[in-house]
Structures
1.
Amino acid sequence: MIKMVVSDMDGTLLNSNLEISQKNLDAIEGLREKGIRFCIATGRPEQLVKEYIEPLNMKDPMIMYNGSVIGHPFQDEKLYDLKLEKKDIKEIIEYCELNDIIYMPYTKDMIISKPNYRVEFFQNRNEKLADKNKCIFEDIRDIDDIVNNHSINKVLLIENDQEKFEKTKELVANYSQFEIASSQKGFIDINPRGASKGNALKVLAKHFGYTLDEIVVFGDQDNDVSMLEVAGVSVAMANASENAKNAADHITSSNNDSGVAEWINKNLLK
């Protein structure tokens, strides 16, 4: 018997406009009416999930930062909280500065970043959001300030030159203290060792008293593979990466066609 459904956000629950369709919202409400818990597992930090808390009516802990943190954006208490080491953060930033690579350290209270196209995108979104849901960006150039005065759960690197991307990904993958994932093309997510959506799913399941066999997960990217592999039932989107599709038990329609709702309605709410 399924007791919990866990969904990734970007490319899965969210459409290409970063919106949750009414079909998906209705399906989530249908789950709750049947006593099935709904949770989120995302690579996003608190700052980038705040706007979705109210429409999703999320009160339970969420998997964030690809599994570095399990908690709630508007609550201080964390069920799980892994942080990168200061010396590692410094090495990452110095490498990015030397090689002109975008780097964005994620903290609970802010995203640290120089101006770039991704910051500009979310700052434009901020104009449409209530103050409590706005994403806070800080342009801090002093590396020692970043390293010593901020607790960092994840560093996102962005490099759209394929050769530089592959070289950088290979380099950081050699660090045994990192978990490396890719949540979008050109993105390298650097998390502390042990942080993955799969590991976080095990912690969340234990917290609620569920077995993994009682959980359905939805995902679309390589950073979802770890939870697609461990859940009792795993569903990849039609727009998913090949690795995600290969790890999943089922394929549903794309994120732009409310594939999450489609599968839930057919298999859990009929």
2.
Amino acid sequence: MEYAVGNMAVHIHWVLAKPALPGWEDIRQTVSGHTFYYIYSGKGIFRSEEGDQEVEGGTLVYLWPGLPLYMKSSEAHPLRMTMVLFECASLTKNEQGWEGPEPMERLRLPFLLPLPSDRVGKIGGLFREAEREWVPGDSVREARVKSIWYRLVQEAHEAAEAGGRHNGEEGIAVALRKFKEKLDTGYATEFRITELAEQTGFSPVYLRRTFAAQYGCSPKEYLDQLRNEHAVRRLRFTGESVTDIARACGYSDVYQFSKAFKKRNGVSPSDYRRKHGGGSFH
């Protein structure tokens, strides 16, 4: 299922640091939830449905519900790793209210993700932070671990999109991420998406196709939706004029803004504000 990390709710069951004992063996005891293992150091064998896989330090392991696993550590180079056992669900808010939660069957992450050097420090540091903060039954400490989990999952998804440390397609993944960041931060300015795409060094057609495969819509549709989201919030939560909101959200004139807004939302900006009540929250 499609999901956004920011729309996910999580419950952390357990955070456990596994000691680096030579030759230890174990199996996955709980297969009903999701599990992360982060391997700091050492070598070993992980056996799943895909057969035996050699693992080593700097690898993130993701186990989705129902996946069995057998683990064996090397005698000479014992595995040192941390486990995070969790459940997660998609939870979204629309004009009618809250939707969900809908349990996540599987995240967009591979079973094994060998990390590039720039991610090893970040993700390893987040697991160490989770180890330090985890106190079961302490709601404050559990909330801190949840905040760490969100950062961890975002880092993991970005690493997976970039292809770990063994993917020759890393260039397009990095270009795609930077291209999206320009849309996210530059939505209020007028620009041509084709020219912006050309700045990445990839052809606009290829970038557009790759963007759609990654985010489920074209860059233009993404930008239109992003501008609309900003406009909706300004109409609801500020006293700005419709003309000022149009300008702040990247529209060349109020007519263009009103036409696009009504097409997407079914009502004009003014009618939307009257219905939902606009007022300054500053």
3.
Amino acid sequence: MKILLIIIFTLFSSAKIQAQESIEDDEKVYKFVQKKAAPKQGISKFLQAFTNEFNSLVIPPKFDEISFKLKFVIEKNGMLSNIEIKENEHAYAYVEEIIRVLKKAPAWQPAENKGKIVRSVNVVPVKLRFPMRSVDKTLLEKAILERTVNTEFFEFECNCKLINSSTNQYNKVKEFAYNTTDNNVFYSITLKEILLTNTENHFDLIKADAEKQNATINEIDYKTYRALESNYIVNGNDSKFYNNTLYFIAGNYLITITVISTNEQISKFNFADLKQTFKLKIDKE
């Protein structure tokens, strides 16, 4: 009886392992296959359809073209999933428009391996040109101006609107908050008056606070300033909030710039764009 139980247990375990392997094999994403996935209408028509559908108004006027690589998984039913942008940091700011266009694309012919339809990964290079932008310089300058956030203290570029501004006279802090029109990205900019003799102390306090938040923090050179850059995640009830923050001292102000989004890539690359376009007007150094 004991031998019989061992045999039954062994067979059951073997069947369970095979079933598990079958499930894992069924969900596997293949990099190399015998027959690659491809758009049913051909790659040229796929790229042309992508270009025609893409809304170029989401791209800042300063760009005449953008190029990037699309990485995605072609499911067994030919639909696209796990969409990522590669090799262009600016493209991440427009990832939602890219995903919208891809979701409207017709299903692909899925990949095959050893006679079975399988999930596979594909990388497609894309280049989008906007030649009409250079035709009317007046309209171009107007579009750039409309995208520029301008205050007496600073300016930067973003498709966003002011949602709150305040001044705390006691703490000598000025705060500005902005949201993108689709409410997917939140910007916070604060200017705090400080005593220049305590600059190192301020950086020490920032590092200590970052440690409490389990944030990654690094000392960097930002333009002509010594700066700290941190990133961390705040877990909400339904979403994760990805925070990217820059701290630097200019004149007698400690400047804090923060970008927050529930999408890690969008947060990261809107943060990069803000750092690039941010211009301070109060630096007295």
